[in-house]
């Protein structure tokens, strides 16, 4: 029996209702073949005698095995592993002045969405906690057709032109001779490519930062990355960059923790999303836009068409215009999450592209890939991809066609059907591309305005807190430390030295080699020989701002413990009243609280009541929790068990908030614990069993997420 979910009426949208007729429910139903013939024996194939060979005429066996043999489809070439959910988008503020997109005009409208989060490099079965970019793809089922915002959790990209995408991905994935490593960039081919691609340096800063190991999908930002256009009723275009800002703040885990989670629960992010929705703790993001009028296009020191650049929020503030809420898990992973097909080219009137060469190339790739992945030009008919807006056109037939197009005509113009389906005027909602004037030679070239590869990488590094900087240095020590060829390490140190000397020296120290004196390799072999190569060497532009607060996670939202997983560690003889009080307090703040003890089953309280244990030290681990609250009890040996101390020590090492009985203060495992307790760094000492007395400070510490200053570098 499936566990009943706590889903509320909020969970249904016009899209989820649209899926109902396609949803099968086997409850109280009889087993049948695909032809509807009822089956009376699903355990034995048809044989010539009960010890004889299976007969070919066993159509029930043949159908079952044939279908099974064909269950797999190719996984996505990138973003293969993911998790999705349904929800809706509400608009706070009409954007009518800038865009005619109806779902961004009407504040009374709730637009259904399906969102898929993903890692990029690993295959479908890889771990959620790989150091990687996360996909953040949103399909808006608007009344004017589907609009897809296919973004990432980082606002820039590795390359400036889509023609390099296959090279980037080939270099990042497992090496072609042995397909090693899985879901990891810490290997020669990736860093070989990057060391020859100085334009990737800004993205490398993001990818080596803690953003690449998020605590959960619900605690990461999303970005449309490219500059897009809003187009209003008067055909006026405004450049726009999209941001998703999580209401739970932007939080990450520690790298050591990420690696351990990958072993203990490789589905950690999927599970977190699933459980949050089942518990009614719906993840939420606000949609923000940065708007730049056309006439300001060239006011920045960088090119708005360059996808390796952000517009610092200090230059153009992010205006919050709406909210996305995820309220319902898929009914079926394959039917929805696997078969959903996103495409940056799924547009509605009022939104348009720019000439960003990365975006332009994407416009080809996404439909093309669905053809091999989903197998037919009719992939738009798969229920999850089908718009809620009506579809009428003269496209016909093809593999797996579902729609039954009635009538005699499938062409236009026609007179037999009075010209139907007819074209719509722009005023009536027909899509018209922005009439950008272009008068230019056909040329394979890149604008010189794309050649500032370092200033925003430097801006990012300089904007980090000291622990965040240390994490970037350590991540690069790890990644480049796994590289075998010294030349590659050397080239990378050269590039890093152009970003920041603290960074380059820190990484070099870890690699045990010097930063090269001549940092730049002759990198631009890709420039055609008849061009003056010097002209295309990286240039450095003074950034308009030295630091940008929005780039550091230090300043993120830290006022909620909603959805936090908290371990209450207790053994027999625990003060049951105190434990229940803390449990209720934390649950009231919407934390997910679990009792962890030595054995499964139950523990007896000091008043001989029984408390159910959720996990023992074998079935869970400190890395799967955000914080630990440790209770004293009448059995002193409990707290000194290796498993208990290991649990506390690990939570402590990963800079998590912990509340522990005062008696543990001298444990050798917990060096500096006294100092951190005194300095208010997430270590809370429970004196005389007064657990209630520390509840407030514990909640505050959990909301703070981590106390990275406790780390030693
Ligand atoms: Fe892409 C999938 C995001 C550049 C080609 N991409 C894919 C997904 C996301 C992104 C989130 C997963 C969608 C899903 O959940 O199904 N991709 C990006 C972003 C990019 C980007 C933010 C740069 C700003 N992508 C990019 C380029 C190309 C592709 C330059 C090719 C020229 N991407 C693909 C693809 C995928 C894909 C091969 C694989 C599966 C799919 O499309 O449906 O077409």
From TrEMBL:
Keyword annotations: Heme, Hydrogen peroxide, Iron, Metal-binding, Oxidoreductase, Peroxidase
What protein is this chain from?
Answer: Catalase
Ranges where the record places region Disordered: 1-49
**The reaction(s) this protein catalyses:** 2 H2O2 = O2 + 2 H2O
This chain's source organism reads: Solitalea canadensis (strain ATCC 29591 / DSM 3403 / JCM 21819 / LMG 8368 / NBRC 15130 / NCIMB 12057 / USAM 9D) (Flexibacter canadensis)
Superkingdom of origin: Bacteria
What the protein does comes down to: Decomposes hydrogen peroxide into water and oxygen; serves to protect cells from the toxic effects of hydrogen peroxide.
Which segments show compositional bias classed as Polar residues? 26-47
Stored InterPro entries? Catalase, Catalase_AS, Catalase_clade2, Catalase_clade2_helical, Catalase_core, Catalase_haem_BS, Catalase_immune_responsive, Catalase_large_C
Known Gene3D superfamilies for this protein? 1.20.1370.20, 3.40.50.880, Catalase core domain
Q: Where does heme bind?
A: 76, 116, 165, 362, 366, 373
Molecular function (GO) terms listed? catalase activity; heme binding; metal ion binding
Annotated active site = 79, 152
GO terms for cellular component: cytosol
């Amino acid at each position: 029996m499936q566990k009943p979910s706590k889903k509320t009426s909020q969970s249904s949208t016009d899209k989820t209702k649209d899926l109902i007729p396609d949803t099968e429910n086997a409850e109280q139903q009889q087993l049948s073949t695909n032809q509807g013939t009822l089956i009376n024996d699903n355990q034995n194939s048809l044989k010539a005698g009960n010890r004889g060979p299976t007969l070919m005429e066993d159509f029930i066996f043949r159908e079952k095995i044939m279908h099974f043999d064909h269950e797999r489809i190719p996984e996505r070439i990138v973003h293969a592993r993911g998790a999705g959910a349904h929800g809706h988008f509400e608009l706070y503020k009409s954007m009518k002045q800038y865009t005619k997109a109806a779902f961004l005009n009407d504040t009374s409208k709730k637009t259904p969405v399906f969102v898929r989060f993903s890692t990029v490099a690993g295959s479908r079965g890889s771990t959620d906690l790989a150091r990687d970019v996360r996909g953040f793809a949103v399909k808006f089922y608007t009344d004017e057709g589907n609009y897809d915002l296919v973004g990432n959790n980082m606002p820039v990209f590795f390359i400036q032109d889509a023609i390099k995408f296959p090279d980037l991905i080939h270099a990042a994935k497992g090496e072609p001779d042995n397909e090693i490593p899985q879901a990891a960039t810490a290997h020669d081919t990736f860093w070989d490519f990057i060391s020859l691609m100085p334009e990737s340096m800004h993205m490398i800063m993001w990818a080596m930062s803690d953003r690449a190991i998020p605590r959960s999908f619900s605690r990461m930002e999303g970005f449309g990355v490219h500059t897009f256009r809003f187009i209003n009723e008067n055909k006026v275009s405004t450049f726009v960059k999209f941001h998703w800002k999580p209401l739970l703040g932007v939080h990450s885990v520690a790298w050591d923790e990420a690696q351990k989670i990958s072993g203990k629960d490789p589905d950690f992010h999927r599970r977190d999303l699933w459980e949050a929705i089942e518990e009614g703790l719906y993840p939420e993001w606000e949609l923000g836009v940065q708007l730049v009028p056309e006439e300001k296009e060239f006011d920045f020191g960088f090119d708005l068409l360059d996808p390796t650049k952000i517009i610092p929020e200090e230059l153009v503030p992010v205006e919050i215009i709406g909210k996305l809420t995820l309220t319902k898990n898929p009914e079926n992973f394959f039917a929805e999450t696997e078969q959903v097909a996103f495409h940056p080219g799924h547009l509605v009137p009022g939104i348009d592209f720019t000439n960003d060469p990365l975006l332009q190339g994407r416009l080809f790739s996404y439909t093309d890939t669905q053809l091999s992945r989903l197998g037919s030009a009719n992939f738009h008919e798969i229920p999850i991809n089908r718009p809620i807006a009506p579809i009428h056109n003269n496209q016909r037939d093809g593999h797996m066609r579902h729609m039954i197009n009635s009538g005699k005509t499938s062409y236009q113009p026609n007179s037999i059907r009075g010209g139907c389906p007819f074209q719509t005027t722009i005023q009536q909602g027909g899509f018209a591309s922005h009439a950008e004037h272009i008068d230019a030679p056909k040329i394979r070239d890149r604008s010189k305005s794309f050649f500032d590869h370092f200033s925003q990488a430097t801006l990012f590094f300089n904007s980090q807190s000291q622990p965040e900087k240390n994490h970037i240095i350590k991540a690069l020590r790890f990644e480049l430390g796994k590289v075998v060829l010294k030349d590659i390490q050397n080239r990378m140190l050269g590039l890093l030295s152009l970003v920041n000397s603290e960074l380059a020296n820190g990484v070099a120290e870890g690699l045990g080699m010097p930063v090269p004196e001549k940092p730049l390799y002759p990198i631009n072999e890709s420039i055609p020989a008849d061009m003056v190569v010097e002209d295309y060497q990286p240039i450095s532009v003074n950034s308009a701002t030295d630091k940008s607060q929005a780039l550091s996670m230090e300043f993120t939202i830290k006022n909620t413990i909603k959805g936090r997983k908290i371990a209450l560690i207790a053994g027999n003889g625990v003060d049951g009243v105190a434990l229940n009080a803390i449990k209720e307090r934390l649950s009231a703040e919407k934390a997910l609280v679990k009792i962890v003890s030595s054995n499964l089953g139950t523990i007896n309280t000091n008043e001989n009541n029984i408390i159910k244990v959720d996990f023992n030290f074998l079935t869970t681990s400190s890395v799967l929790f955000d914080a630990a609250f440790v209770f004293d009890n009448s059995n002193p040996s409990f707290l000194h068990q290796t498993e208990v101390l290991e649990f506390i020590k690990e939570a402590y090492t990963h800079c998590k908030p912990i509340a522990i009985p005062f008696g543990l203060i001298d444990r050798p495992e917990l060096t500096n614990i006294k100092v951190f307790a005194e300095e208010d760094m997430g270590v809370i000492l429970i004196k005389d069993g007064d657990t209630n007395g520390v509840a407030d400070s514990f909640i505050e510490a959990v909301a703070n997420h981590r106390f990275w200053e406790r780390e030693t570098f």
